[in-house]
Amino acid sequence: xxxxNPVILIPARLKATRLEDKPLADIHGNPMIVHVWExxxxxxxxxxxxxxxxxxIEAAIRSHGGKTxxxxxxxxxGSDRIYEALQKIDAEAQYDIVVNVQGDVPTIDPEIIRAVxxxxxxxxxxxGTLACEIILEQEKTxxxxxxxxxxxxxxxxxxxxxxxxxxxxQLATALYFTRATxxxxxxxxxxxxxxxxxxxxxxxxxxxxxxxxxxLREKLxxxxxxxxxxxxxxxxxxxxxxxxxxxxxxxxxxxxxxKSTPL
Length: 263
Hints:
- The chain is of the alpha/beta class.
- The chain folds into two domains: 1-106, Alpha-Beta Complex (Spore Coat Polysaccharide Biosynthesis Protein SpsA, Chain A), CATH 3.90.550.10; 109-240, Spore Coat Polysaccharide Biosynthesis Protein SpsA, Chain A (Alpha-Beta Complex).
- Helix content is 31%, strand content 22%.
- The protein is built from ten helices and eleven strands.
- The chain has a nine-stranded mixed sheet, sandwiched between helices. A two-stranded antiparallel sheet has the order 2-3.
- The longest helix has 13 residues, at 247-259.
C-alpha cells in the first residue's frame, strides 16, 4: 500500500437559502456541524479542520476541542473554500490527500468517510468519491438524486495490498454524473454521494478551472473534472448519508440520531 497523508476539511458557511444558520442547527443539544466534525474525527484517517466563514461556527467547533480555519465569504463552492483552508494550514504541502466532507451530513457513518480514499490506491485516479446502489424506485427518476454512471464494478485482487487498503470494497471509474435516469435498460443505478478525496495536485488543478458547459447544464460541479480529463474513482458503499437542506430534513436527522448509538 502506498503511503498517504490525508487531511479532512469540512466546508461550512453560515448563509443557506433553505435552512437559516444551517451549520448551527441544534440536534440533540449540539450544532449540526459539531456532529459532522465528530464523525470525521471518528473516521481516524487524519487531522480534521472545519473551514468556516463565521465566528459562531468557529466557536462551536473550538468549544468541543476541534480545529477551525477561517475562510472568506465569497467562495462559490466548498471546493474553493477547502482550497483556501489548505493553503492556510499547510503551506509546506505535507498533506497529499484532501478529503472534503460536506458540513450538512450529521448522520454520516465514519466508515463511509474512510471508504472515500480507497479509489486513490490506483495511482491513475485523481479524485475519489462514493456511490450506493439505488433501491427505491422513486429515486431512480428523481432529479434531486444525482446518479453516477460507472464502469463495471470490480473487487481488488484478494490478498493484495490494494485489497487490504480498500477493505475489499467494489471499485469503479466514473463515466458521467447526471440528474437523469441513466443508463438506459436493465441493471443497477447508482446514487452519487458527494464526498471527495482529492490528490493535492488534483484539487489545485480543479479549482483553477472555470465552470464547464456540462457542469453548468447539470448543475453538478464534479462534471468540471471529467470535462478536463481528470479521472474519478468510485468506491461502492451500503448507505447514503442524509444531507440536511430543509427544515424537514433537519427533523428527519433528529429522529434518525435519536435512535442511533452515540459515537
